Every structure is written in structure tokens, then in C-alpha cells.
């Protein structure tokens, strides 16, 4: 193989270089797309907080104190209920068409809200809020789409940039206040403005190159390649050439691909599971093996004088002489698809019999159902921390304007509190992504739970404007840390689960890269969908109940109940982070 390595790149690989250089020059569009997703999230949050700051107050003006939080509660409930349908439709139609559909519904809902305000109808206002729910459900996926553009090395930054867009959405409550009395009937102008916000959000979403991430996954499946780091780099416009230290081999005999043995090695700690992600189509007998210094392609039409010709000759020679051992790829001449008895040459070194035994395929075991991937402490703990802090924050956020009005403050004061809360929720994203990378996402979540509990306690300090604004702002900061930290855990968990499954498939010698692509997509869609569903479901339930709970308990007891909940969440987050640090 030394001669093959020194012979230089094959004509095929040389032809690939210009294309690779052209692709790598387009690396910057990924940040443009992430920026657009952040802007789209900004408008989604702006519309959300017009609803938060206006619907409950409008319902009270209509004479329905006990049902004041019903519209925003149903908004959250419909958001939760539509997550699964949005995921399925996105897979079938593509994300762009789904975004157009849900934003069209949101525009209709905002227009209906204006009619409801004109007629002072709580029923129409509730229906209008429900129509806007699916748009917010779809918007919650923006941060994970941004992660797909960014790749593994920039996950935290992509999350932070996307969530940060919500800070600009703080203009929403002020916009509602400015337009509330612009027309003779209160809040009609505020809800008409929401129609325009959804139109702008749709225009921004249409500018995102969604086909980059969707097309990369589709091409990976069609061509028998995994949705790997390499595919991710291609989606972002980066060089996807074979990395240093890898040799690509193609078995001319079409026997069991060497990736089967690589998978078994990975399961025994002898290979990096990430290597499996770079495997090519097993039906073509191709594979990647680490340890070489150059790329050799032995596919059918390669020059016999180059690396490909020598590999083909080696394979034929091995087939004719079974005792001679398999060269380079570790295949027994392509006849039996097993390591030879005399040793396997890999990257210039020879393995002994014990190492060869480690590389033999393991007995077949069925892959676990996709739903069972959620049954691990890493996912369940992250989802619990995120959803519980979301629930606590949402209840306090919905109750604060109502309590402020009860204490004699005016609507403009509630707008200041809601806008401050919104800034507290999203402005820390300027640095929370860096904190997640430095502290670890689990510890950032712990910090967030502690800060949120402190903000909750602040509510007990008085009934003046400063107390309300300060407390709700601190609650928002705590939510940001907990939400970003918990969200940053999920992509890493997906990678771990998919790598384990790919190692199992490779160990069985049944590795199907197209099936692996589908498996990775299914796990990712399920876990992210479940994560967001738990967040929104809890928020929907508590939003529906907040008005009645506040009326029955009174403000002081209400704050005390949620302070106890916040302290409990903090204790759980400490336990979760400790277990993750010790057990992984």
C-alpha cells in the first residue's frame, strides 16, 4: 500500500478539488440563514407578547375576569397540540410550505382578534388566539433549524443567536400600548398590527435557505450516506472532502463491507463511533477506514496505474489466495467477508489474532423502538428542567399584568413590566451560549433555576412598579439560562443515541447507510418534538388555570405557591447536573 499512497491523488479525487474549493467559499451563508431565523423568531415573539399583554386585559374589559387568561391559554394549548402535525407535514411537504400554512392561519386569527375587540366578544377572541397557536409552534423549531446550519462546533452560538432575536420582540408590548387607542374601540389597532407582523415574519422565513438542510438530508438518504458531520458541513457550504488520516476503499468483490468490522471495533472502544458516520453505500461495498494518509479509490473505472488499480489487484490476489490475508480493508478477498487468519493490515500495521477476533461481527440484535430513545435520564431530566421552568415563568408572566391592575397601576405600567420581562428572557442570549460552552449546559440550567427562584421571591417585596418590573425581569433571565442550557443538551444526546445505533448496525454487518439516515432523522424529530411538546403543554395548562388560580388564592399566596415550585425545580436541577457529571 505504500506505493499506492505515494502515487498521488487519483484523477477522480483531483477533479473533486475545484468543486470542494467552490463549496468552501460559500461557508458564510450559514450565518446569514441563522440571522434570518433569529429575525423570524423576533417577530414570532413580538406577536406572542402582543397577545400576552393585550388579550387578558381585553377579556377583563369585556367583563370576564375569571376567563381573562383563557385566550392565551388556548393559544398555548393549540400550539402544543399542533406540534406533532407540524412535524409530520414538514417531513411530507417541507418546512417552507408548513410555515406558509401556519402563518396564513395566524394572519386570519389576528384579523379575527380585531373583530372580536370591536364586538367585545370573548368567544371570538379565544378562537382568534387558537388560530395563531400553530404559528408559534412552528417558530419554536427555528432554534433547532439554526443548529442544523451551524453544525456541532457552533451549536451553542446558533442557539444563542436565534433566541436572542426574541429580545427585539420587546417592541411588541409597546406597539400594543401605542396602538391600543389608535382606533375608537380599544385593542383593535393592536390586533391589526399583528397581521402586519405575521406578514413580515413570513417574508423573513421565505428568505431562509431551508433546502440546504432538507436537501442535504434527502441526498444523504438517496445516495446511501448518513446525515453525518460531513453532510452537515455540505449543508453549510463547507469543504466535505475526506479528512486527513482516512483512506476510502471500495471492495471490488461486493462482499460484506469493512464497516461491519469497524462498527464492532467501535462498540469495544477500538474505534471512534464518529467514523461510522462517514461510511458510504454498503451495497456498493465501500467503506472508510482510519489510519491511512491519503485517499484511494478502487471503484471500477479507476486507472490501473493509480491507487485504485493497485487496490483492485490486491483484492483479486487475496481472493485467489485465502491464506494470504486481506489487505488494507480487512476483507478476506471478498469471498467470505471475514478477517483472514494471518492478520489484517490497517493503516500500515498488522493486527494479531485477538484483535481480529474483536473485529468480527457481533450477534444480531434488534434496534430499540424510536420512542424508547426518550427513556433515558439525560433526555428526561433536560426536558423536566426546561418544561418546569417554562411553566413557572409563564404563570408569573400571565399573572403579573393582572395583579398590577388590581393594585391600582395602569395598562402602560403593565406594558413596561411585560417588555422588561421579554428583554430579561432573550437579551441574556448575547452570552448564555458562551456560558453553556464554558460551564456546561447542565450547570447553566442550574444557574437559571436559581435565578428564577430569586425573581419569584422578589414578588413578595411589595406592590410598587419597581418591584413588579424587577421581579419579572429576573424571572425572565432565569428562564433564559435554564431554557438555553436544557436545549443545548438535546442535540448532543441525539448524536450519542444515533452513534450507538450505528455502531450496532455496523457490528452486525447489516449496515445500511440509507436506513441509518432515516433512523437519525426519526430520532431527532421525535426527541425535539417531544421536548417542545412538554414545554408548550405545561405552559398551556398553567396559562389556562392562572386566572382562576389567582382569583382563588390572591396575589400573596399565589407568589408563595410558585416560589415553592421554583425552589423544587432548583433542587431537581442540581441532582440532574450531579448525576450527569458522574454518569454522563
Automatic annotation (TrEMBL):
Regions of compositional bias (Low complexity) in chain numbering: 316-326
Domain of life per record: Eukaryota
Pfam family, one: MFS_1
Residue ranges with Polar residues bias: 339-352
Annotated TM spans: 34-62, 68-86, 98-116, 122-145, 157-179, 191-210, 374-394, 414-431, 443-461, 467-494, 525-550, 556-579
Positions of the UniProt region annotated as Disordered: 298-361
Coiled coil segments of this chain: none
Biased composition, class Gly residues, residue ranges: 327-336
UniProt cross-references to InterPro entries, sorted A to Z: MFS, MFS_trans_sf
GO molecular function: transmembrane transporter activity
UniProtKB keywords: Membrane, Transmembrane, Transmembrane helix
PANTHER family per record: MAJOR FACILITATOR SUPERFAMILY PROTEIN, MFS PERMEASE
Official protein name in the record: Major facilitator superfamily (MFS) profile domain-containing protein
Origin species: Cafeteria roenbergensis
Amino acid at each position: 500500500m505504500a506505493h499506492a499512497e505515494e502515487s498521488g491523488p487519483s484523477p477522480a479525487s483531483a477533479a473533486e478539488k475545484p468543486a470542494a474549493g467552490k463549496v468552501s467559499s460559500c461557508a458564510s451563508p450559514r450565518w446569514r440563514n441563522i440571522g434570518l431565523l433569529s429575525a423570524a423568531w423576533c417577530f414570532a415573539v413580538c406577536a406572542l407578547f402582543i397577545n400576552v399583554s393585550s388579550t387578558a386585559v381585553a377579556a377583563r374589559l369585556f367583563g370576564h375576569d375569571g376567563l381573562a387568561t383563557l385566550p392565551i391559554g388556548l393559544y398555548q394549548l393549540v400550539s402544543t397540540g399542533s406540534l406533532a402535525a407540524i412535524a409530520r407535514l414538514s417531513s411530507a411537504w417541507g418546512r417552507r410550505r408548513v410555515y406558509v400554512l401556519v402563518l396564513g392561519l395566524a394572519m386570519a386569527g389576528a384579523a379575527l382578534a380585531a373583530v372580536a375587540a370591536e364586538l367585545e366578544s370573548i368567544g371570538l377572541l379565544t378562537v382568534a388566539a387558537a388560530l395563531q397557536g400553530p404559528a408559534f409552534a412552528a417558530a419554536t423549531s427555528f432554534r433547532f433549524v439554526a443548529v442544523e446550519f451551524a453544525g456541532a462546533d457552533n451549536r451553542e452560538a446558533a442557539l444563542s443567536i436565534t433566541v436572542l432575536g426574541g429580545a427585539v420582540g420587546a417592541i411588541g408590548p409597546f406597539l400594543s400600548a401605542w396602538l391600543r387607542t389608535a382606533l375608537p374601540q380599544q385593542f383593535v389597532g393592536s390586533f391589526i398590527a399583528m397581521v402586519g407582523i405575521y406578514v413580515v415574519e413570513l417574508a423573513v422565513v421565505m428568505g431562509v435557505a431551508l433546502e440546504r438542510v432538507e436537501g442535504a438530508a434527502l441526498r444523504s438518504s438517496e445516495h446511501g450516506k448518513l446525515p453525518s458531520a460531513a453532510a452537515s458541513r455540505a449543508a453549510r457550504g463547507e469543504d466535505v472532502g475526506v479528512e486527513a488520516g482516512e483512506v476510502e476503499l471500495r471492495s471490488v468483490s461486493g462482499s460484506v463491507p469493512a464497516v461491519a468490522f469497524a462498527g464492532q471495533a467501535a462498540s469495544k472502544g477500538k474505534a471512534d463511533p464518529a467514523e461510522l458516520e462517514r461510511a458510504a453505500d454498503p451495497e456498493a461495498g465501500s467503506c472508510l477506514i482510519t489510519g491511512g494518509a491519503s485517499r484511494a479509490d478502487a471503484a471500477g473505472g479507476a486507472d490501473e496505474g493509480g491507487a485504485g488499480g493497485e487496490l483492485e489487484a490486491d483484492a483479486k490476489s487475496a481472493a485467489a489466495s485465502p491464506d494470504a490475508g486481506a489487505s488494507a480493508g480487512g476483507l478476506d478477498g471478498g469471498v467470505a467477508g471475514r478477517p483472514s487468519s494471518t492478520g489484517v493490515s490497517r493503516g500500515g500495521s498488522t493486527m494479531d489474532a485477538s484483535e481480529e477476533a474483536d473485529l468480527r461481527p457481533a450477534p444480531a440484535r434488534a434496534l430499540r423502538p424510536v420512542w424508547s430513545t426518550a427513556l433515558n435520564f439525560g433526555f428526561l431530566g433536560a426536558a423536566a428542567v426546561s418544561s418546569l421552568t417554562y411553566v413557572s415563568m409563564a404563570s408569573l408572566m400571565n399573572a403579573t399584568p393582572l395583579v398590577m391592575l388590581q393594585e391600582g397601576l395602569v395598562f402602560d405600567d403593565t406594558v413596561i413590566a411585560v417588555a422588561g420581562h421579554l428583554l430579561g428572557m432573550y437579551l441574556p442570549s448575547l452570552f448564555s451560549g458562551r456560558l453553556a460552552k464554558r460551564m456546561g449546559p447542565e450547570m447553566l440550567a442550574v444557574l437559571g433555576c436559581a435565578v428564577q427562584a430569586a425573581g419569584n421571591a422578589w414578588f413578595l417585596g411589595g406592590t410598587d412598579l419597581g418591584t413588579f418590573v424587577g421581579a419579572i425581569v429576573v424571572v425572565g433571565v432565569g428562564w433564559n439560562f435554564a431554557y438555553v442550557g436544557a436545549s443545548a443538551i438535546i442535540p448532543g444526546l441525539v448524536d450519542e443515541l444515533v452513534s450507538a445505533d450505528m455502531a450496532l448496525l455496523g457490528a452486525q454487518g447489516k449496515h445500511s447507510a440509507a436506513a441509518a439516515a432515516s433512523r437519525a432523522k426519526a430520532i431527532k424529530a421525535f426527541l425535539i418534538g417531544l421536548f417542545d411538546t412538554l414545554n408548550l403543554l405545561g405552559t398551556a395548562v398553567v396559562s389556562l388555570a392562572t386566572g382562576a388560580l389567582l382569583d382563588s388564592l390572591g396575589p400573596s399566596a399565589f407568589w408563595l405557591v410558585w416560589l415553592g415550585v421554583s425552589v423544587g425545580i432548583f433542587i431537581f436541577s442540581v441532582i440532574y447536573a450531579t448525576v450527569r457529571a458522574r454518569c454522563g
